[in-house]
Write a structure and sequence with these properties.
Helix content is 30%, strand content 28%. By secondary structure, the protein is of the alpha/beta class. The longest helix is centred in the middle third of the chain and has 14 residues.
C-alpha cells in the first residue's frame, strides 16, 4: 500500500476505515441506499464533495460502499485512491447502463467481462499496442455462480465505457459497437479495470439496464437509485 498521506483530497477516511472489498456505485445516493438497506453497524467515512462512503458488515463480512461519480476521470481517481492509499483488493462497480444489444431489456443484469472504450485513459501506460481492459476472472466466476444461486438471469460479455454521453454523431456510434457484439454502454468500467490491472488487484462491473438508447425506453432517476437491487445482492456476496 502507498505511503501517501490520508485522508486524500477526495476522501475523509483514515487507513483502516475502508474494507478490502468495496462496491462502487456512480451515484452517491445509491451508495447511501446500499448502506442503509443491506449493511449492519454502518459507519460513514466520507462526505467530501458529497461522494458518500460507508463501511459496515453484510452477513458478518466487512464491506464498504463508495460513490465514484460519473465518467472515467472520476472513477479513475476514486479507484486509484482506494487501491493505493487504502489497501482495497476487490472493487466491484454496481451501475446503470444503456442497452445496445437488442435482446436486453430494462432491469436486466449485465456483467462486464471486458470493457471497450473510446477514452484515451490507457495512454498514460505508454504501451506498445492496444490494451484490452478485462474483469478479474475470480470475481466474474463467483458473481455468475451467485446469480445462478439467487435465480437472477445475467448476461455476460463485452461492454462499452464511453467518454461521451451526448454524442455529436447521434446514435450511429452505438450502432457500430452493436455490430461488434457489445452489450451495453456505461462510462466507468474501462478505467476501473485498467487501474486494477496495473495494481494487481481484482475488479468487476455489474450493471442494470436503465435505458435502451436505440429505442428510447428508459427508467426514472429514482429507480436508478433504489430499484436495482438484484445486482447489489450479487455484488454483496462477493465480499
Amino acid at each position: 500500500m502507498s505511503k501517501s498521506p490520508v485522508p486524500t483530497p477526495h476522501n475523509n477516511a483514515k487507513v483502516g476505515d475502508i474494507a478490502e472489498t468495496v462496491l462502487l456505485p456512480g451515484d452517491p445516493l445509491r451508495a447511501k441506499f446500499i448502506a442503509e438497506t443491506f449493511l449492519e453497524d454502518v459507519i460513514q467515512y466520507n462526505t467530501v464533495r458529497g461522494m458518500f462512503g460507508y463501511t459496515g458488515t453484510y452477513k458478518g463480512k466487512r464491506i464498504s460502499v463508495q460513490g465514484s461519480g460519473m465518467g472515467i476521470p472520476s472513477i479513475g481517481i476514486y479507484s486509484y485512491e482506494l487501491i493505493h492509499f487504502y489497501g482495497v483488493k476487490n472493487l466491484i462497480r454496481v451501475g446503470s447502463a444503456g442497452a445496445i444489444n437488442e435482446n436486453l431489456k430494462i432491469h436486466d443484469v449485465v456483467i462486464g467481462m471486458g470493457a471497450c472504450t473510446n477514452s484515451n485513459y490507457a495512454d498514460q501506460y505508454n504501451l506498445p499496442g492496444t490494451f484490452a481492459p478485462v474483469a478479474s476472472y475470480e470475481l466474474l466466476q463467483k458473481a455468475v455462480n451467485v446469480a445462478n444461486e439467487q435465480g437472477t438471469k445475467v448476461t455476460v460479455g463485452n461492454i462499452l465505457s464511453s467518454d461521451v454521453f451526448y454524442n455529436d454523431q447521434g446514435l450511429e456510434p452505438l450502432r457500430q459497437w452493436q455490430k461488434m457484439g457489445v452489450l451495453c454502454v456505461e462510462m466507468e468500467a474501462a478505467a476501473l479495470y485498467m487501474n486494477a490491472s496495473r495494481a494487481g488487484v481484482n475488479a468487476l462491473t455489474i450493471l442494470t439496464i436503465s435505458d435502451c438508447p436505440l429505442t428510447g425506453e428508459e427508467t426514472t432517476s429514482h429507480e436508478r437509485q433504489v430499484a436495482f437491487t438484484k445486482m447489489m445482492e450479487i455484488a454483496l456476496e462477493l465480499a
